[in-house]
Specification:
This protein has 491 residues and is of the alpha+beta class. It contains eleven helices and 25 strands. Strand 23 (439-442) and strand 24 (446-449) form a beta hairpin.
Length: 491
């Protein structure tokens, strides 16, 4: 009985010792159980799980898609091409008006009563368009018109006298100096007429109204405030600004007064698009008594705007270098649409010479040519213009830092990441092959791949839906993919 008891104790001890020894040496015998004898340099089980068998054997994983599946995915295929790529940093900015040149305030030059308001808020107007009819209550404009009528009457009398004296001068019965005196008087009166016409222009009358005074010999009891002529300040950077100023001044000279055809379209294409304005505000109403200098309305020209970049102080060297090298700036506009509005190859115009003391930012400015979205016609031939870019609109400026030569650039949706590995899908007949690639730069819009031989020029790759193709490949291999792989949840 005692011997049997000790036999059981010794047997249990032997079995327990063997279990401990087996557990301690599991690294030696476990590979024999799972995969057969261990081969020096072979991948561990963890490495085998990370890299599927096709990768170890040099074959690329692939997935076959039907035409229907391609259409359902909206799969886009494009050829690989080497190109230069600017690595950039993102800087916030805002669209702004050019100070002093985008706004135009319209004021009256005389005392008067508003008889009619021609403009409507939001309407698009051009130089010469009527804005307000005003009945003068001041004697200044009346006296200026009376002086012009008097001068015109005196010129007619001198002309009549010269006609009477011409036959006598021809027969020699009249001294020539008398005719010369009359001709000198006429020249003096014509000079006075020009000056008086210019005065009426300054006091608010238009060329057509002055022409009416000359033709009918009657006073204007009301005058029309119109959109001013083309503002040369809107083209400050143009070389022919001075020439345009001369042309505009010549156009206003009374000797060339011409009536504008009433059939001219409201938004006829002008030589200078900067001449078009939008009525931003109306400050008067019918029957209001206005004083000289009082603001009647405010016009705005948004054909050319500025983008105000706001770089941190530590980024000032990057801004200065981009200005010195005239490097291209890319601007992304926040529109809320699925696809952002992007404008490329813009240049920095100038950089502020001071740092904001509160926010510690450096402002720099990029000119922006605006674009017309739509011209909506209104009643009575009015037009309302909608611009694509608006003051106050938020933007992101991509400031160039480094120019990468001969790189493969694809949309960000063409790349899928799984841990440290990155892949794109190359088309091979009806198959889509998953190709490992080396990523040099990645942002929400584009990915830059190193030209290391993974892809070649002319290869056809998927430009979108890489993550969905990766899931399809994992499913075909019988594995599962991380549902968060290839996705960025920081936004």
């Amino acid at each position: 009985m005692w011997n049997k008891k000790w036999q059981w104790v010794v047997g249990a001890a032997v079995i327990g010792g063997g279990g401990v020894t087996g557990y301690a040496t599991r690294d030696r015998w476990l590979p024999w159980v799972n995969h057969g004898p261990a081969v020096p340099g072979s991948a561990s089980s963890a490495e085998t799980a990370a890299h599927p068998p096709h990768a170890a054997s040099g074959e690329l994983g692939h997935v076959s898609l039907s035409e229907q599946a391609r259409r359902n995915l909206g799969l886009e295929i494009g050829e690989v091409a080497l190109q230069d790529y600017w690595r950039t940093v993102s800087i916030p900015g805002v669209v702004a008006e050019e100070p002093g040149h985008c706004e135009r305030r319209i004021s009256t030059t005389v005392n008067g009563i508003v008889l009619k308001v021609h403009a409507l808020q939001g309407q698009t107007v051009k130089p010469g368009d009527a804005l307000f009819d005003i009945q003068p209550t001041s004697d200044l404009l009346t006296n200026a018109q009376s002086a012009l009528l008097k001068t015109l009457q005196e010129i007619e009398l001198v002309d009549a006298e010269l006609q009477r004296l011409s036959p006598q001068l021809a027969t020699g019965t009249l001294a020539k100096n008398q005719v010369i005196a009359k001709e000198s008087e006429k020249k003096r009166l014509e000079s006075s007429r020009l000056i008086q016409m210019q005065e009426l222009l300054v006091r608010g009358l238009g060329p057509d109204q002055i022409q009416k005074i000359v033709e009918t010999r009657t006073l204007i009891r009301q005058f029309t405030v119109r959109v001013p002529q083309a503002d040369p300040a809107l083209d400050l950077h143009s070389k022919d600004t001075a020439d345009r100023e001369t042309e505009d001044a010549t156009h206003l000279l009374p000797v060339s007064l011409k009536k504008e055809s009433p059939s001219t379209p409201h938004l006829k294409e002008h030589e200078h698009q900067g001449s078009l304005y939008s009525v931003e505000s109306l400050n008067v109403s019918l029957g209001k008594l206005v004083q000289p200098g009082e603001e009647l309305c405010q016009l705005a020209s948004h054909t050319v705007l500025l983008i105000e970049g706001q770089a941190f102080e530590r980024e000032s060297a990057l801004v200065t270098r981009a200005l010195e090298q005239a490097w291209p700036i890319t601007v992304i506009f926040e529109t809320g649409d699925s696809e952002s509005v992007v404008r490329k190859d813009l240049k920095i115009l100038y950089v502020d010479n001071s740092i904001d003391e509160v926010h510690r930012t450096l402002k720099f400015f990029v000119p922006l040519a605006n674009e017309v979205v739509r011209d909506n016609p209104g009643a009575n031939g009015l037009m309302y213009r909608t611009w694509r870019f608006k003051p106050g609109q938020k933007v992101r400026l991509l400031l160039p830092v480094e120019n990468l030569k001969d790189r493969i650039v694809l949309p960000a949706d063409a790349l899928v990441k799984e841990g440290p590995d990155a892949y794109v899908f190359r088309q091979n007949g009806k198959l889509m092959e998953e190709v490992p690639v080396t990523v040099e730069h990645l942002d929400p819009r584009e990915v830059v791949l190193k030209n290391d031989g993974s892809l070649f020029e002319g290869d056809e790759v998927a430009r979108n839906q890489a993550y969905q193709l990766h899931l399809a490949l994992k499913k075909a291999e019988g594995g599962g993919a991380d549902p968060h792989a290839g996705h960025d949840h920081d936004h």
